[in-house]
Amino acid sequence: MVLLLTVVGIVVAVFVGFNIGGSSTGVAFGPAVGSRLVRKTTAGALFVGFGFVGAWTVGRNVIATMSSSIVPATQFTPAASVAVLFFTGASLFLSNLYGVPASTSMTAVGSIVGLGLASGTLNQALMFVIVSAWIVAPLLSFTIGVVVGRYLYPYLDRYIAFTKFDLHFVQIDRSGTIPRPYLNPNASPQDIVGSLSVVLIACYMAFSAGASNAANAVAPLVGEGGSLTVNQGVLLAVAAFGLGSFTIARRTLETVGDDITELPILASLIVSIVGGTVITVLSYLGIPASLAVSTTSTIIGLGWGRASRAATLAELATPAPDGPDLEVTTGALVTSRAEEAPASPTIGDIARDEEPEADSEDIPDVPDVGAEGPADLDERSLFDPRAARRIVTMWVLTPSLSVTASYPVFMFLL
Asked: Do residues 346 and 162 make contact, with C-beta atoms less than 8 angstroms apart?
């Protein structure tokens, strides 16, 4: 019976890792694939490689926390391990069903909390630290997004912009006996620097995903009395990530790549840097936290910051009572320059030897905060308070449901 439960636990862990790899690969490498800098197969290989580095190094701290610190490792019997992994997998299904990036980390911890409450072994002091981090991390990501979107993004967008290549950045010459790779002939030095930046940041996101998510797949199976060692757990998690990266991630990459105009590559890079850094720091501290929550919080903050740029802080604090209702979408962060406002040449324009619409001296200055100008953005393409409330509600609801659903299960098992 114990052997059967162990096998079931490993199978469920692979299923969880499979789904994590499929979704995280798209998040990390969607911009790079969408702009034709790397192919889907290359994206999968890079994700697995850098995810392994993140899981093998920083991820060990998170595995240690979730496998032995929230509750003693001895509480993870084969049956309890299967139950914890089941609730983690169920959270992935629930988030996909509602189209909300719910946190597998938070839900996995929630099911472990249910185990701790049922057994009376919950480390309450540590849980206070973890929950505090869950509150601070998205607020910090949101705040950074607001500051960048409100005060810095227009200047970055004026001088730095990325567009898609018509052909892949790296081409393969198959005319000879041995295929020979070569760079897109239209690529300029500026393109090479910009393209490398996009790919390197995608690899950084893969590192962060491996550091934060390996524990979600294997923590209950690792540690004292567990069926796997830490090294075996990391290898199992990364192998499961790879299954997802090379299979279901192809659809995720297509979706993110096709929708890249909805989230410009510049905005995506900012989101990746902020969200990835917040999660890497927390993972180093051994705190399980959600990459999806941090990146989504940054997107919301960046969109709100850009949407609010045309108003001063005083005007935002005292909105006009008869002003129009703001009903907009979060998916945009689109550079919606007015047609009469010429844009600076993008890296893609330079690569295709296209002439810019105007010399850089003719480009209007970015309007000051609170000032109207041709570069002002349509608020309706940037921020949707109702969508933000729905996302935050799911962030709170999924771990709460995990605790309340797992508690009676563990009361029965123990």
From this structure: yes
